[in-house]
């Protein structure tokens, strides 16, 4: 068997159940190391901590927690914390979906994205939990083990980030895998105003908006129908199709 080194991180913090389940699922396939935030940093996106130094604590063999963001964790782990190279980053299993616009804010996706320069695709895995859903982390763990196994047997041609969303149901009730595009959401709900003990106004960021484009081929639709949604992501945000239009508007050569 090939010796593969997999780095695992998340944005729910190093104590999260999904992280533990992910590590357990991948240990038969690879040498697994966890470097994860010391607390829940969901919504941290691709932020790096630049104003204070990062402190790393070894909690146990192959488990480290960091006083930073998911991106800090992966950045540290692949840029000097260890004296070897990782082959792959897997992030998750997030407690909650990362569908459509969610990927812009997601720390789960950001951690995977930070591992994009490694040899194998980076994977972000989210379980689409709801208030009363079963939290079937075992389902998502089994799905990601199968995906990683497949990647090791049959590599993808290009480096990419795979955003994986798993319906929160027993494995036997999944309807299979689907390659999807990102849908999108309506505008987010309004912020929730409140007061601190001194009477000063404070605000909570409200929930994400409801789905807007959840149509054919989207990640939203796949998950709603009980499929595992797998969206290939790229970091290049350039709107290539608009380049000529913008050059024309500017009156410059395209
Ligand atoms: Mn999270």
Secondary-structure element pattern, one letter each: EHEEEHEHHEHEEEEEEHEH
The name of the CATH architecture is 3-Layer(aba) Sandwich
Runs in which pLDDT lies below 50 for 5 or more consecutive residues are none
Briefly note the structural class of the backbone: alpha/beta
- Estimate what percentage of residues fall within beta strands: 25-35%
Bound molecules: manganese (II) ion
- DSSP helical segment count: 7
Helix percent reads: 10-25%
Say which CATH homologous superfamily is assigned: Survival protein SurE-like phosphatase/nucleotidase
Measure the end-to-end span: 50 Å
- Oligomeric status of the shown chains? single chain
The biggest sheet amounts to: 9 strands, mixed
The CATH topology label is Stationary-phase Survival Protein Sure Homolog, Chain: A
Shape: globular
Q: What would the average pLDDT be, to the nearest integer?
A: 95
Number of DSSP-assigned strands: 13
Summed up, the domain count is: 1
| Alpha-carbon Rg, integer | 19 Å
CATH class designation = Alpha Beta
Strand order in the sheet with the most strands: 3-4-2-1-5-6-7-13-8
Summarize the structure in short.
The chain has 254 residues and is an alpha/beta fold.
